[in-house]
Amino acid sequence: MTIHAMPETATHKALSGRVALITGSTSGIGLGVARALAAAGADVVLNGLGAGDEIAALQADLRAEHGVKVLYSGADLSDAAAIEDMMAMSVAAFGRVDILVNNAGIQFVSPLESFPPARWHAVLAVNLTAAFHTTRLALPGMRERGFGRIINVASAHGLVASPFKAAYVAAKHGLIGLTKVTALEAAEADITCNAICPGYVWTPLVERQIDDQAIAHGVPRDAVVRDILLAQQPNKRFATVEQLSALALFLATPEAGSITGAALPMDGGWTAH
């Protein structure tokens, strides 16, 4: 597993002495955010799925690349007790969690009348309820220290809907609501809470979807990208993990202290319709 160095920026090492916990951070968007925060000097707690040897290698690479401490929790985010253990482990190891990034998410697509109730509960548990648990557990320590940054990775589907994604759309709308309530309750304690709302982001998972849909529909990959996946995005381009990570990094810095309760689209104009 290769770690790519983040470019030097004005925020380089701006997070030295901070501790960041990022859910769903062993691949994709979450891993990109973890890399960005580590490059800025934060110690990090990773969470997510993956083979033990790959995760160990990822931890070692992050430590070597950025000189930060890196822990890993395999907590099942559908289990409240496991989340409590993860948060307690992080505080026991580092004494604090300054930056919380709720990124983990799952998806299931089905018409409403045939949507399996078990799938509904699973999507809501990971995409929304887990963020409630991590937030409620992180807030007391943030209040004690007078600083906190909570960043929820929502979705353009937290602002608009698409058919056949009832649980995902409901969860992401709920996550934006949770973001606003958290921001209001914590505003005077120098704790901010914001949601990033990406459209389609270029990840290996999306790349596999392109190939699958090209085969299923019998059309070229370019047509899948433009006419199916990016049909609602006016710029017809995927956001990149690096772009999203740069926004998350900025939201974690002191310079973003007056941004709170915001749902920030990174969707190529999708929600401007």
Automatic annotation (TrEMBL):
Q: Which PROSITE patterns match?
A: ADH_SHORT
Domain Ketoreductase residues, every copy: 18-190
Q: Which UniProt keywords apply?
A: Oxidoreductase
InterPro entries the UniProt entry points to = 3-OHbutyrate_DH (IPR011294), KR_dom (IPR057326), NAD(P)-bd_dom_sf (IPR036291), Sc_DH/Rdtase_CS (IPR020904), SDR (IPR050259), SDR_fam (IPR002347)
One Pfam annotation, family name?
adh_short
Q: Cite a single GO BP annotation.
A: monocarboxylic acid metabolic process
**What EC number is given for this enzyme?**
1.1.1.30
Q: What GO MF annotations does this protein's record show?
A: 3-hydroxybutyrate dehydrogenase activity
Going by the entry's taxonomy, the superkingdom of the source organism is recorded as Bacteria
Q: To which protein family does this belong?
A: Belongs to the short-chain dehydrogenases/reductases (SDR) family.
The name under which this protein is listed is: 3-hydroxybutyrate dehydrogenase
